[in-house]
Predict the 3D structure of the following.
Amino acid sequence: MDMQVIKSKSTLELQVHEEELRAQLFALRIQKAIGKLDTPHKINELRKDIARIKTEISNRALNGEVIKPLNFQKMELPEEKKAKKTQNKKTDKKETKETSKKDVKKASTKASTKTNKVKPTATKTTKSKSSSKEDNNNDK
């Protein structure tokens, strides 16, 4: 990525782009560890692009621009984002069916538990006086 392209973007866009590049770099490092990395030169390119973006952001901060950190809760790989979108559509339909089934089950179990409440009774085991005296004699 050229510095001209980086300079033309807003700070927020740069921060978001940096996070995306970090996710890609993470995925490439995992592939490298597994041994399935086809393009090892991509790791160096991504590292350099991240450094260029960081340099531009720090230059803007030195020039007086207020830069707010992004609040990402979890870094997601690009493949996960695509899978998540398609999965959300499928799970929304399933959730509506499952919640109605759960509501029926909960209602039936609540009714059955109210009628069958049994209080457990506690039993104590105590030693007789004679056995405790024998224990004391054995200890001496």
